[in-house]
């Protein structure tokens, strides 16, 4: 007998999200919507299969540049069938860090975003913004970027990226340093635990409304 399959996606965003132990597909058909509208090629389809609240499979596909990222728990991460891994960067001074201004016009969040940009700029090697949570995480997984964090994203934005980064050897946690929560709307990923701890100690925190509230 096939277990009941559940689905969580951006179309669910107007209602309270519940993540159970049942096999659940978490899907964002267009991650990077503003990029898509403008023809900017950082646009992804993001798909994750979560069972008992653990991500088992992740797929991030960018059709503009034909990058297909895949990961399965315990089997590694791949880009177009070639195995990928995170960088070995441990220090912020050597790190290329991704972050987003975001589309939210929340004044409090905007202040936190700019405060963090001002904190990061003098101490990191560089800052980048891909305009897509899934793409930012895929870049960390392939070693092109060293870390990425964001407040105000949703499960469908980062569930696939979570397993992609972890299977590539990186870490995914809450920006305050605790375990990653797929419904918290907060995430941080990095190539190494050392780099993640430096980021956690530096950035100003922000608590968006959770997806299960």
UniProtKB/TrEMBL annotation:
GO terms for molecular function: inositol monophosphate 1-phosphatase activity; metal ion binding. Pfam families: Inositol_P. The keyword Hydrolase applies. Pathway: Polyol metabolism; myo-inositol biosynthesis; myo-inositol from D-glucose 6-phosphate: step 2/2. GO terms for biological process: inositol biosynthetic process; phosphatidylinositol phosphate biosynthetic process; signal transduction. It comes from the Eukaryota. PROSITE patterns: IMP_1, IMP_2. Keywords: Hydrolase, Magnesium, Metal-binding. It catalyses: a myo-inositol phosphate + H2O = myo-inositol + phosphate. CDD domains: IMPase. It is an enzyme of class 3 (hydrolase). Its EC number is 3.1.3.25. Mg(2+) binds at residues 10, 28, 31, 157. Its cofactor is Mg(2+). Gene3D superfamilies: 3.40.190.80, Fructose-1,6-Bisphosphatase, subunit A, domain 1. PANTHER family: INOSITOL MONOPHOSPHATASE (PTHR20854), INOSITOL-1-MONOPHOSPHATASE-RELATED (PTHR20854:SF4). Belongs to the inositol monophosphatase superfamily. This is Inositol-1-monophosphatase.
């Amino acid at each position: 007998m096939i277990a009941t399959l559940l689905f969580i996606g951006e179309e669910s965003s107007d209602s309270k999200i519940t993540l159970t132990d049942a096999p659940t597909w978490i899907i964002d058909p267009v991650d990077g919507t503003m990029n898509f509208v403008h023809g900017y090629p950082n646009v992804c389809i993001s798909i994750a299969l979560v069972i008992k609240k653990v991500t088992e499979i992740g797929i991030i596909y960018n059709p503009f540049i034909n990058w297909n990222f895949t990961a399965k728990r315990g089997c590694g991460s791949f880009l177009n069938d070639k195995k990928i891994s995170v960088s070995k960067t441990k220090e912020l001074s050597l790190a290329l860090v991704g972050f987003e201004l975001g589309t939210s016009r929340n004044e409090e969040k905007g202040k936190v975003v700019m405060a963090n940009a001002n904190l990061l700029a003098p101490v990191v090697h560089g800052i980048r913004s891909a305009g897509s949570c899934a793409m930012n995480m895929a870049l960390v997984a392939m070693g092109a970027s060293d870390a990425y964090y964001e407040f105000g994203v949703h499960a469908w934005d980062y569930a696939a990226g979570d397993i992609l980064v972890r299977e590539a050897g990186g870490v995914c946690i809450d920006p305050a340093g605790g375990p990653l929560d797929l419904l918290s709307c907060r995430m941080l990923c990095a190539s190494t635990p050392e780099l993640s701890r430096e980021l956690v100690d530096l950035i100003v925190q922000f608590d968006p409304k959770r997806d299960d509230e």
